[in-house]
Design a protein that fits this description.
Shape: globular
Strand content: 15-25%
Distance between the termini: 29 Å
Number of helices: 9
Helix content: 25-40%
Structural class: alpha/beta
Largest sheet: 8 strands, parallel, barrel
Amino acid sequence: MKACGESLKAFMRRRKYISNGLQGLVIVSLFTACSSIPENTTLEEGNAVYYWRTDLKLDSTERAFLQQYHINKVYCRYFDVVMSESGEPKPNATITFSDPLPDSIEIIPTVYITEDCMHQKHEGFAEKLVKRILQMNETNNIHNVREIQIDCDYTSKSRKTYYEFLKAVSVSWNLGYPRKDLGQPKISTTIRLHQLSMEAPPVDYGSLMIYNTGDPSKWEERNPILDYRDVYPYLDRLDQYPLPLAAAYPVFHWIRDMYGVRVEHTVEAEEILKVKRAMEKERKNLSRSIITYHLDKENINRYKPETYEEIYHH
């Protein structure tokens, strides 16, 4: 936006040299360029969920949920990556696969990486991560995987290393991609609200995490899972963010011990919908791909069916 502002200011200084008709045309052009909304040209329309447990095993309520809300993608956490005592990244909390997903649902292997893994480069890290995903797919007879997602709360300190890592993941994923007939392989990453002010990562699209928006230490003031007041400052960044975005909303229950006090939080349905309406007002195509976090029987029963209908409404 700075560049746009400077261009407009320079133009206004020269306006006396421009005819009235041409002046109006240029002003319209400048404002159009500055306020254009990125199109989700590579993002398919659909409904999705995150699956964040350590065993892929669905009960009848969860399977019915997938069918009722036409879920066509499951972002399934395969494992975490944490720093070992030796100072190298290592996998942690790997999922087991007790149940297969319905054939109609695309599984997207998702890996959460702690931010400290990105404080420096680690030789062969991307290649090892992709190889592990491919091995898990083969071992568990998971086919037709055409996308992987990386989840990392990167900061300005780790951003450069993380983006280089994503490029290396993309290269390894393209080389190891087992099903060329499924089309171009994809890489996506999560985007936190505070990351909207940074340069966009080198991926096909981002999943905008519209949750965990507040400071847990200030839980007495507002809900740290989601509060419109915490989201509001980021709204004006949405329309200019150059990466296609899916929108992920919270439906989970949060329990934590804070200074010896048991603290519980659940986001009211109206708060979720209020935030969703505000986000889509700023960026209409944010309704194109909707995700909820995360698939679990208790989360399903926490909200009325009409709430889920509204969340997944396109």
